[in-house]
Structures
1.
Amino acid sequence: MNLRLVLCIAMGVFVAHLGVFMIIEQFTPKPKLTPPPKPNFTVRETKGVDAETGEKVVYREITVSTKFAPSPTTPPPEKPALHEPLVEEVAARQP
């Protein structure tokens, strides 16, 4: 047997196994999807006629509600510690 025939047989076996594994994966139970969240917006529309011009007017109002992120677990310190330069460093910077 030559090398080309052995490689073709090996590739055929690999592809066949890959196909079988993909088919088996299709039949495994999938996790149940959670229902989509309720919309966080409302839409209102009012139609009318402008008394002065007689034009049709449409008033649209879109309201969006948001939830803010929770506060950080560790609050920042009341007075942060500042590093003040040493006297020698300040004297070395001055010409």
2.
Amino acid sequence: MNEIQVILLGIILLAGSVAFFFFTDLVPKQITSTEMNVIVSLGVGVLIFVVDKRQSHYLDEIIQAQHKMTQEIHKMLTEEIRLIHEMRRENNKGDDHGTNVR
């Protein structure tokens, strides 16, 4: 099940339970603020956990893509440096024989 579907299911169940307990007298008339704080904290904690898991996966994909791109750039730069050294050797070789005309 998708994380978004889990969150939506949780919200629907929460709204359904609130409506059920509002219309029935199964819950005490007075809920202390401490109990409400615990309920809200648990709900927010679960939401943060699910969203964090999703973001962690997304960030991992971004990091992998950047790593691959960095490796490709490194290969290109290494090849350019090799070509520059080769051209420099050819130039120095031409200067030594006097065939290089300026």
3.
Amino acid sequence: MAMTLPRLTADTLRTGIFEMTGIAIEMLGQTREAFLQYSPSAAGRVAVLGRELHLREKRLTDHVAMQLREMPWSLGLSEHLAFIPAAMERVGDSIELLMRCIEGIHRDGVPFSEKATTEILTLFGREAAMLQEVSAALQARDRGAIPRIQAAGTALQALCDEAALHHQGRVIQGVCTPRASSIFLAMLDDFREIERYIRRMTVDIEKALPPADASQAVA
């Protein structure tokens, strides 16, 4: 016998996604700390958070899909948020890939230059700020967060391109080992992937926001 789920409201859907965003932010912060000072327990915490994110995505996505089949339009504009849990799960997957790179760095004693370390830490900070803006857009329905996230994403992709160019110079100069090169470029790809999924989320979040108050436009 199928279990009857409580009706999902627009607010409970937003809350569920907001909580998933918090998990992703915590995963990113733990991964950054592991990059600075690795410990097996840090990797374990990120893995646990990743499993929690996967579980929440499945439950929330299944709940939304079931309800929309039975009660179309029951979520109103928030129906546009239906696929954000899956996108947030992909963010978590990319963070776990970052952690695997970090495990390799510390397990194999892979040297990173001061410049490469600074670039990676900058990317961690930029993406944490973007996820915080996603939280603001969801919780406070802050329409102004959307262009800020999009601008930050464009800047982050440019920063990845710049970091890759600097990296090429280090390789040519012979100051970067092949193993370090492989890991650094993989981390850049992971940061880019996180940004791409965040950018996709902003499109759906913007669609789910109510129209701007017309009275604000009156002089």
